[in-house]
Amino acid sequence: MDIRLLGPLELLDKGVRLPLAGPTQRLALAGLALCAGQTVSSDELARLLCSPRTAVHSAMARLRRALPEGAVETVPGGGYRLRSGRTAVDLARFEDALDRSRALAAEPAGRAEAAAVLAQALTLWRGTPLAGLPDDSPLVRRERPRLVDLELTAREEWFGLRLALGEHSVVLDELTDAVRLHPLRERFAVHLVLALFRCGRAKEALQTAREARHRLGRPARELRELARAVRHDDPRLLLPGPDPADGAAAAAVPPASPPPAAPVPAPVPAPAADPAPRELRWPPPEGAGVLPLLGIADVRTYSSSSTAAVAGCAPSHASRALEQLAAAGVTSVRGPGVFTLTDAGREAAVREAAKLPPEQHRRHLAGLACWYLGSLYRINVPLAVPGNYRVRYHDGADRFPQGRLFTSVDEALPWADAVLEDVLSLAVQLCVPEYDDGTELAGRPLSSFALEAVRALESYLAIRLRWRVQRRLNELVLAVAERRDDVFARAVALGQLGKVHALRGEGEEGMELLRRSEELFRSAGQRQEAVVALSNMVPCLGNSGRIAEAAEMARRALAEAGKLGMDDLQVTIQTNLGRCHLHLGNHAEARGLITESYAAAKLPYGRTHAAGVLAEYHLATGEFTEAARWAGRALGHAAEQPFDPYLVAKQRTWLAAALRGMGREAQARVEEMQAEALLEDLNTREHSRVRPLPPGVSLRGTDGAGVPGGAVLEGLHKQVTPAATDGGS
């Protein structure tokens, strides 16, 4: 068996590549291979997989089926180990060869063999290590920078051996390329200066040293002393003996392909092209002081406000620092007042951040996390949301006074769109056990960042239907909750995951998750949250064909919401109950309930929902003119604030059906085309195929986008066919 980590993850058995089904299998294999010959505990695997400890056993069972028989053994006490040991993993073979090379190089007589051993070992590298694994996984974030640094360090040592053997003219071009590709690796610059000097190009050597000092700002003593020796034409820099260009034997040279590894890929690709590495310059003092702080968090985009939060300085100081960093090529301008770290800039920032004391690193990281949470809670200020959500968002904004302010929906939602991937990356970074202690997040530990984020983003996620991010964030919440035995957090995650499953057509899974969420909320004394979860089960049942059960559950939820004074929720539940009666054939009862809901609705969502179901009622009774009137009214209410694309598409579908019933085919087709266009972006982004079903189809499949508060799946006709997914996830 051969497990290859030094490039795209590959598994071979007797030279035949074996398939790996999905990211969970691949992460599990990589986790074991990185500790080849050693035991990996179940807790460590759970952290690497971002999964509950209880899920590790099933993940390992799937991995065993993919590997040759007996490849993985279970260790008493709760852990797993690869039986094949170090020889089966390319990384372990490389590390062993590197150790051997260093031992040989300790004696001058062994340098030629050391260079040959190291050259052969470097051929194991096939590109970016751990490629093909999720970039936002804790394993990749922890191990890839280490592995990239390991390769570059080995290449630095290999160049050093070649220079010690007098092969400066042979490696000159390769050293020039290495400095161009990795301008912030000082050892490459030192080697190039020495090689140029030995090739009789002292003037170019001094120029290279000056450029390196300018890039690095504070070069190490070795580079300064080397430049001084070059200026004085110090004969000690010359190496006795012939150059291999004159016929001496040289150590084996690593093949030209692949080239040295590129800088560590960022978790989110920068939207603008990065400046070439050679344009990087060490910034003036303000920018240089901020640079390390931009490397502590797994985010790429900064504004003066977020930079001030992470640096603990005034926004004006942060703004000047960002402009200096942009002039130095460390950042690129993404938009007015917004900057993105370039690849080379990110590499420099991460390296400088690693020099900070742990307590300082954590303090600055907490400042940025609090800024994000304050901003995320405030994006809801311009939205019309149910009362219980309004209380939650105001409380969150009070607990996190840092962050941006928003005066309009058109300002708030696009900002959230732009930072969503950075929020996810930061949540992944903070979900690990080392952040389980402390009170930095308004009394909670830093590992609670994902929980606070999903609570703050619930309205946004319901409007934008960002299912992938919502699912990933809640998986992180669940992993931390399982580890910390946090009942409330577990209930939150299960409830939101239940809605995502239901929306994607996985009704039974959604129903079970919502049921567990309700039970946990009740055990934690959170009655309002429990009623919301109960309400979300109503359309799940209805769209599974269990309409009578859905009606009974709606009556229960309606009564409890009334006792708790949840007026906005009552409107939505009653509309869903009316819809159940419509599909049970109780038309008079249905019309009464829905009409009453429309009259009581105070929020745009409640009015849109009720008006749309009244349009559906009139379609069912053949009153097409009334159906068109109510569908048009629903679209008017939907224009009062942003709504999820499916809700608006459904109203256009109802309007198209009404127009067709009135004999206005051309207008009906226009409405249908607009509905299809609304869903195109959603289907592309979320890898799904969602389309409204025509009126009159029974409530089957799944339904429901959420209210802007995320409170209820509103009971839409909907068919979802999930796109092909990676089977191992």
From TrEMBL:
What UniProt keywords are attached to this protein's entry? DNA-binding, Transcription, Transcription regulation, Two-component regulatory system
Tell me the first and last residues of the signal peptide.
none
Q: Where does the chain cross the membrane?
A: none
Record region (Disordered): 234-282
Query: GO MF annotations for this entry?
Result: DNA binding
Domain of life, per the record? Bacteria
Give me any GO biological process, just one: phosphorelay signal transduction system
- Record protein name field: DNA-binding transcriptional activator of the SARP family
Ranges where the OmpR/PhoB-type domain occurs: 15-82
**Bacterial transcriptional activator domain location, by residue?**
89-231
Gene3D superfamilies in alphabetical order: Tetratricopeptide repeat domain, Winged helix-like DNA-binding domain superfamily/Winged helix DNA-binding domain
Which species does this protein come from? Streptomyces aidingensis
Q: List the biased-composition ranges (Low complexity).
A: 244-254
Q: Which InterPro entries match?
A: AfsR-DnrI-RedD_regulator, BTAD, OmpR/PhoB-type_DNA-bd, Sig_transdc_resp-reg_C-effctor, TPR-like_helical_dom_sf, WH-like_DNA-bd_sf
Residue spans of biased composition, Pro residues class: 255-274
For this chain, the family text in UniProt reads: Belongs to the AfsR/DnrI/RedD regulatory family.
UniProt cross-references to SMART domains, sorted A to Z: BTAD, Trans_reg_C
